[in-house]
Amino acid sequence: MPLYNKLKEYRAKVGINQSEMGRLVGVSRQTISQIERGDYSPSVVLALKIAKYFSVSVEDIFDYKEE
After folding, report:
1. DSSP 3-state assignment of 40?
2. Residue 5: strand pairing partners
3. Which residues fall within 8 angstroms of residue 7, CB to CB, at 6 or more apart?
4. How far apart are the C-alpha atoms of 15 and 21, rounded to whole Å?
5. What pTM value is reported for the model?
């Protein structure tokens, strides 16, 4: 599934690592890493938690492109 994201860029802006991001949204560092690499598509709930943390919309971080 072609789901692209800017999670790494958003994390860098606020200066938090993958472990801290995972703790803040209730997942492991590995899950955050997989999301950033595009190997894992987060659930709607997780995507909403991530967007809420950064005070942006889900679409600001995640983008779906049809092939």
Report:
1. coil
2. 62
3. 21, 32, 35, 36, 50, 61
4. 10
5. 0.91
* 3 state SS of 20: helix
Cβ partners under 8 Å of residue 67, min gap 6: 2
Which residues, 6 or more positions from 15, have their beta carbon under 8 angstroms from its beta carbon? none
Cβ neighbours of 18 (radius 10 Å): 20
Distance between first and last Cα of the chain: 9
For residues 42 and 3, the answer to whether their CB atoms sit within 8 Å is no
CA distance 43 to 53: 15
pLDDT in tens, 11-65: 999 999 999 999 999 999 999 999 999 999 999 999 999 999 999 999 999 998 8
Between CA 47 and CA 51 the distance in angstroms is 6
